[in-house]
Amino acid sequence: MTSTSTSTSTSTSTSVLISELARAANEVERLTKPERAQLMERAAKAIEDLREQFGYVGAPVRNRSGDTVDLLRAMARAPGAYAAGRVTDALLDAAKIIPRSHGWSRRTWAMRNQAMAGRKVG
């Protein structure tokens, strides 16, 4: 698989997840506890993967309640312990953070590659 197709595949799966999060946030009362947990874990993993992929490890993405990944994971472990409104907020926060992180990382990676291309080797 080429880097272009990998990038396209990642962008597509990211777009699908964002759509699922936004849709679920609007229908949170219809979701089962396992569905809530699965979506929150997938969102946390997506944010975490983007951080790792672009060297943003250890730098939390914060929302009103602290680090989004930590909050999503806590909510995934106890999906019935949070009010529907709080779950909606968390899903919408994730749906906003993922494309920002993805966009930031793509720009940063492009700038890094441009800078590296300008260097002389040897």
UniProtKB/TrEMBL annotation:
This is Uncharacterized protein. The lineage of its organism: Bacteria, Pseudomonadati, Pseudomonadota, Alphaproteobacteria, Hyphomicrobiales.
